[in-house]
Each structure stands twice: as C-alpha cells, then as structure tokens.
Amino acid sequence: MTNRYIIFHKPYGVLSQFTQETPNHSTLKDYIDVPDVYPVGRLDWDSEGLLLLTNDGKLQHRLSDPRFGHQRTYWVQVERIPDVDAITKLQRGVEIQDYRTRPAQVRLLPEDPPVCDRNPPIRFRKNVPTAWLEMTLTEGKNRQVRRMTAAVGFPTLRLIRVSIAHLNLDGLPLGQWRDLSASELKLLHNLPNKYAVSETKRSKFS
Question: Which CATH architecture has domain 71-163?
Fold first, then answer.
C-alpha cells in the first residue's frame, strides 16, 4: 500500500473522524475521499484549520508522541484585549486543571489576521472588544488553548490552527485538502525529537 500524506483545511463544526456519532456535525468523510487515512492528532469540532492525515502508522505514532514536541501555531480570537500580564502568563505556562502547560510563544496580533468568515459567525457582545493572539505550542492537551486563555481571563471565541511544524495552510481553501509536496514530506520525516534530545544532553552533563 502506498503511503499518503495530506493536509486538510477543516471548517468549524466538522469532527476530526470519518464515522458519524451525532447528526449535528459533519465528519471528514464529507470532505475527504482518500481511503484509509487518519488524522495525526485532532482538532475539536468547534476549531478550524490545518489537519494532517496519513496512513503511515509509524509517522503517525511518532508525531503523536508527547515527547516529540513539534510546534503547532494557532490564531486565537479572544474576548476583550489581553494585557501584558496575561500574555506573560501564557508564555510562561498556566495551570489548567491538574497540569501546568509548557512555555509557549504568544503575541498579540496588531491587526485581524486574513481569515475567512466562519459559519456560523461567533457571537459578538456589544461594547466588548475582541482581539487575536498568535500562540505556538509544543503540546496538545485536550482543549488546551481554550483552557489556557480562560485561565488568564480571556475566553476563546474562535480557534484556527494555521501550522504544524513547517506545514501551513498557505492559501488552501476552507474545506479543501491536498497532498504534501516532496519537500514538505522530507522535512516532516526529518523533524527532530526535541525533548528526547534535551533529555540526552541533560543526562550527559548531569
């Protein structure tokens, strides 16, 4: 069987699976006609953006390993405008339930990013401004981004994953998918295991 590697621009309201468990949401089957590919990680039904799928079990296992630590970048629309203190807390790590998040790259975007309209649109509240954050994480706990922004007092209204490591949407239309290029695939297979490297260095000098 030939391995396939594709990226998909997932719309809001689509489950990151091919089987339908509830009639209220679409699934990947409604958009992707490639047999036997499965998501690497997931996006919640109410999140949008880049989803990587493959039938390469070895690569899927490697990228799903929490020790791997590859970067995932999100554009996050939040309620109100985060201050410096909130952004610093997100950068350093916050407590969500019984877990402290790893340090993250977080910045307030100076203007709205170039995103397509969401269907349905978010619920705006009169006299309550919104802002966009760019957040780059190296982990993917359940609903982590939403829980992080809520922990510092700025609830997430819209969440879009724009890149996974070197892969990005790069103009891919909403609801469409494409195969990875040869160069993208080569870089994907050669991504380092950052946390394994860190542990090796730590043991060598301890």
Answer: 2-Layer Sandwich (3.30)
